[in-house]
Structures are given as C-alpha cells and as structure tokens.
UniProtKB/TrEMBL annotation:
Name used for this protein in its record: Porin O/P polyphosphate-selective
Region of interest called Disordered, as start-end residue ranges on this chain: 67-101
InterPro entries: Porin_dom_sf, Porin_O/P
Keywords tagged on the record: Coiled coil, Signal
Natural source organism: Acetobacter cibinongensis
Record's signal peptide: 1-24
Lineage: superkingdom: Bacteria
Coiled-coil annotated residue ranges, if any: 28-66
Record-linked Gene3D superfamilies: Porin
Amino acid sequence: MMRCKILISSLAFASVLMSTVAPAAMASSSDDAQLQALRREMQEMRREMQGQISTLKSRLAKSEAATATHQRGAYTQHASSGPVHRHIESGPTDPSVQFNEPATGASRIHLANAGTPTSDRGDITSWKSFRAATKSDENVHVGGMIIGFPKGRFTVASEDAAYGLSIGLAFHQDFGGFFNSGPRGKDARGAFNSFTSNMRRLRIPFTFRYKNWVAAVTPDFGANHNDGYVGLYEGNLNYTGLHNTILTVGYFQPRVTEEDSESSNDFFTLERPSITDMVRNIAAGDARFSVGALHYEKRWWIAGYFTGQEWGHRNASDMSSTYYGGGSGSTMDSQTGGTLRVAGRPVATKDWDVHMGASGISAFRLACNSTSANNCARSTSFGQRPEFDIGEANLAATGAIAGAKQVWAAGPELGVRWKRLIVKGEYYHVGVERQGANLKSAGFQGWYGSAAYTLFGNPRMYNEKEGAFGAPGVPEAQEFDPATNHWGALEVVGHYSVIDLNSRLGDAYKANVIRGGQQTVWTGGLNWYPNRHFRVMLDYSHFIVSRSEQATNIEGRTGNSVAARIQAGF
C-alpha cells in the first residue's frame, strides 16, 4: 500500500514537472518541426502517466477496501489458485502496471465451486453471502454498478451489493411416449400418447434485493401437465439477516420430504417418486401461501411453515385446470395446514455422507366449498401418474373422499453417499380423518428407493442449505470439449417406487371402501451434464398398477415409457 502511494506521488510530480518544463523547452527551439514533435511526445508521455496514476489509484482503493473488509472479518482469503477476477474500471488505465497482488477470496457455500446446476428458484441468500458471491465471480464494474454471474445467474448490483436484481431460468422440455401400455377389457384408453411433448417447466426467477430483504417472483410458463398454461411458481418476501436462517412469507414451496427439498434441476429422474409428490401436495407444493422459516448448519437442518391455499385455488375461471390441483369459485373457507421437516447429517467426511430425517405435514382444516348458501362440503382426493408427466391420465386414484376433516402424512428419510455412489429412500403413511355417520378414517402409504452413480465428472455432494443431495458438478476446466478430451459429467440412476391407495377394502360400509389401486414403477436412466447450465436426461420406466375405480384402470394395467428432457438452468 505504501509502495502504491509513493509511486502515485512520484508520477503526479513528474506529470506536473513536464507540464511546466514543456513550454520552456518548446520556446527555446527555433525549429517548428522539432517543436511539434516535442509537443506530441510530451502529450503522449503525459497521457501515459495519467493512465498509470489512474491505475495506481484504483489498485490502492481496492487494496484499502480489501484490508478493511478483512479486518471486519467479512471475507476469508484463499490461495492464489482460486478463481480469477477481471475488473474493468471506468477511466484510463494502464494494464502494464502489475504488482502480483493476490486475488481477493471469499467464503462461499460448499458446492459453490463444484460446477453444480443453478436452482430453479429465486436465490435467497444473506447479504453477506451475496456480497461474497458477487466478489468471487467474474464481473464488470460500470459506473458504480457490478454486472456479473454469481453462481451462474445474471445479476446487477450496487458496488456494496446492498441493491441487487438477479434473473434466472429453469427450462425443462420433455418429450417421449408410451408403448405396450394399452387398456384391458373395457378400460378407457386414456391419454397415453405414443409420442408427444410438454414444456414441463419454463420458470424465470426474478430476485430483488435490498441488503438482507429479498423478494422472489417466479412466473412459470409451463405451469400445467399440458402445454399452454401460465402460472406462478413463487411470489414471496424473505429476510436473511439471521445466521443461516431464511424467514419467508408469501406464495412459496415449503420444503417437506428430502426429494421436495431438492431443486428440480437436481432430480435423479424426470419426476419425483409418487409418494413424495402425493405427500407434498397435502399442504405444501408449488405456490402455496406460507409463513415460516428454515435454518441450516453443517450437521442439521430444520424448517417449518404454516400454510394456506394454493395460488389460483379460488379462481372460478380456472376451476378444473390449475396446475396446483384445481380451484373452486365456491370456496367459503380456505384450507389451513402446516409442515415440519427435520434432518441430520451424523457422518460428513470426504468419502461418506449419512443423511437422516423425518417430515410431517397436515391439512388442519380442508377447504370448505359451498353446496348451498349455508352449507359446505369438505373432501379430498389422491391420484398419481406413472411418474411421466406429459398429460397422461391417472391410473392409481382414490376419487373424491367425502367428509374429510383433516389430512396428514409423516415418515422417515435416509440417504447415504459413498464416494460416487448415493443411495436414498423415504417412507410415508398418509391418514385422512373423516366425519359423518359410520365414516372411518382412511389410510394410505408409499415408499421409494433410489440410487445414482457418477461415472465421470464431480459426484453428487450434500447441499447443507437444502438438507438434501445436489446434482453432479462440472467445473469450468472439465466442460464438454471433445478437442481437449473433456466430456462434462455422466451419471446412471434408478429407482423403485410404490404407492398404495387402497383403504379398508373389506369394510362392510361401502363409503369406507376406497380402491385407489397400488402402483409400482421401476425407472432407470442416464443424465449427462455438458456443463453446469445444461443437462440431457433419458429415462425408461415400467409400471404395474392394480385395478382401481378409474375408467382407465378398472381391470389393472401395465406399461412402459421412454422419456427425455433437455434442461437449461441459469
């Protein structure tokens, strides 16, 4: 720092000296040509010195700011092998002035440098973490603003990162079809296309920040099981000023179950296992009004939310078509519920991670939809597609369950990582408490087991902020480039998934008998990541569904599907 100050003073003095000596030198010359040449040479030297002064001042300001920041303990210095920072300063500069200064480092979450995909959600981080991210990634300084791609997402921020706007993308285009999946007997064919496509997700996360206050708004142009619907994935306000804690209010996806805590950009297969999708929609799921918080540490994670209705649930113009389960224009009393998830990580080493947890969810009071001016009906239903979502019909489904007072689900989750291999699974029991003469409670269950092995590229690692396992990573030096024998990352995945939607099949009272069928799905697939922003997925599934009361599955049904997804995330 002292060296910078001495050089600045010396150069400034030389510049002033030349500006005073030049006229005398020029006046003493009688040769006009020599005079003009000397004037041009002096002007060129003066511009060069001004550029050097500007560069030195900029470096001095950076050095002082870095020193002050280090003294406050805001950032941690890393080795010179860390990320390279290119700062383009406004004003004249001289790139030949070099002091071999070490690059400024910054503390970041464990997966930040692993080349993992970006999230499909608004990036809700603390102000401290946001400042670290904007300083750790390549960026451009223009007029007191920072423009860059911290963690791969386009961001414009003020110099101190107090104000920020980030714009992202989650693009999932699915295509494929079913074969050997025809109906038996008098069953209806259903929407089991031999080939079709669906824009599964087209989300554009907007994240607006002022220090530790963050607003996330994410419209979704793929908000339905069929193309052509526009919806809302999230619209919420968050406060991040408490250590490793995010307080949230608004339309949100409450984190419940291990699979639901993952970003969809990180899924093993195209869709969640049926039981986790079924459980999360009881009182969570996408765009659910929520008030709550999550907190995470290296070894444990907890989140709880009070929840209300889903976005669009009272919209009469879209009663049967909303992505979030169908609305009703006759709702007299909206649903209320809550979620709680607790997870621990008792083993965390270079080669091993052990994850254990439990989730609970409940709809304390189901929505009351009017049947007359003074009466209402409360009911619920469950149904799941065979884990391929291009608009096909449900085969396993309960139909409407009348007299439903409360709905709840609970179960454990377990995951183990050993080097490049991850094995995980969850089990949930679902209960429906009913009220009415002779009505008994209903019970359902489901479970899954999944495995993934990374053939090349960085393996899946544990994401402390999500309390779940992230996707494989592709560092910049390993991005797909056949010319340099780099191929990104490739993993092989598979899972076994079961839901049982049958309840009280032998009960003498017909209203207590629910024959929703049992669905088993075997899935295997490959996921290729050419870089952190793109993925290509290919899944093969075989499904077996026992008979239900659906028109598409009165006699039981089996089938196969092949599906692919192209994914982009920023």
